[in-house]
Design brief:
By secondary structure, the chain is mostly helical. The chain has one domain. The protein is built from nine helices and two strands; from the N terminus they run αββαααααααα. A two-stranded antiparallel sheet has the order 1-2. A hairpin with a 2-residue loop joins strand 1 (about 20) and strand 2.
């Protein structure tokens, strides 16, 4: 059976995670994905506010990028520390600040961006949910690039499978696994981007502040919950509550689904 799995598995491209090096300085695909995601999101948001009644100015967007980056980095790191490995960091507090050693959480980054967006909108007297809808439309760009970088790094791979799409990852043992990073890149990235693009440009959704934000939040959470069925859970956490299917990612998705639905059904026409 194992020989059949190995024979039928797709070939993992095994791309070097490091693009190029200058002495001790290494430029990695993962870092480029972060920077590319932020740049393309900023560019796309700039296109979206080129309307008759934009919620903010281009100057606001340029200033907001710094706030968003801080929310992603600080929130993402704190989320990993508290959600995924609290016992270790409780006894090794100094390591909690070692961002360069890896360990980021999407859910922590999400909460960080939510807080920084709220604070930025409040300080600049920008209508929060109209602005959040713009941010939501652009967010899948970064998600897609981030998951593609996870795939290049050979990390966050899926569970063992006998499906033809299975791949043998360098750090995942000899058996084929689901390329769950690509599933997430497609669902949370490309497809969610297309859905939000259609809603914003071809429907009246943008006239209901918060609706698109709700679709993004619940759409991400539902897509992530689905892909978690194929993704290998973190080795130091495993499955939760003595089950063989419930993961930390799914638990953290639940409040996102509920909040997203709340935003969808509470909206009133604002423009």
């Amino acid at each position: 059976m194992t020989e059949y799995l190995l024979f039928s598995a797709l070939t993992y491209p095994n791309i070097d995670p490091i693009i190029f090096e200058f002495g001790p300085l290494a430029i990695r695909w993962y870092s480029l994905a972060y920077l590319g995601g932020i740049f393309f999101a900023w560019f796309y948001m700039g296109r979206l506010i080129s309307t008759k009644k934009p919620p903010c100015t281009h100057e606001h967007l340029s200033d907001y990028i710094f706030w968003a980056m801080m929310g992603i980095i600080i929130g993402g790191r704190l989320g990993y520390v508290f959600f995924y490995n609290p016992n270790y960091y409780f006894h090794n507090i100094g390591d909690a600040f070692a961002v360069w050693d890896g360990g980021m959480s999407f859910h922590g980054g999400f909460f960080g961006v939510c807080f920084s967006t709220w604070l930025f909108a409040k300080n600049n007297k920008i209508p929060l949910f109209q602005f959040a809808d713009i941010v939501a439309c652009a967010s899948p760009i970064g998600l897609m690039l981030g998951r593609l970088a996870n795939f290049i790094n050979g990390e966050l791979y899926g569970r063992i499978t006998d499906a033809d799409i299975g791949m043998v990852f360098p750090n995942g043992g000899p058996q084929p696994r689901h390329p769950s990073q690509l599933y997430e890149a497609a669902l949370e990235g490309l497809i969610l981007f297309i859905v939000l693009y259609i809603l914003y440009n071809f429907t009246k959704a943008k006239h209901y502040a918060g609706f698109i934000t709700g679709v993004f939040i619940s759409g991400y959470a539902l897509a992530r919950t689905f892909v978690e069925q194929f993704r290998e859970p973190d080795s130091h956490i495993g499955f939760l509550f003595n089950t063989d299917m419930l993961t930390m990612g799914q638990v953290l998705n639940l409040p996102m689904v509920l909040f997203g639905f709340y935003l969808i059904f509470r909206v009133k026409k604002s423009i």
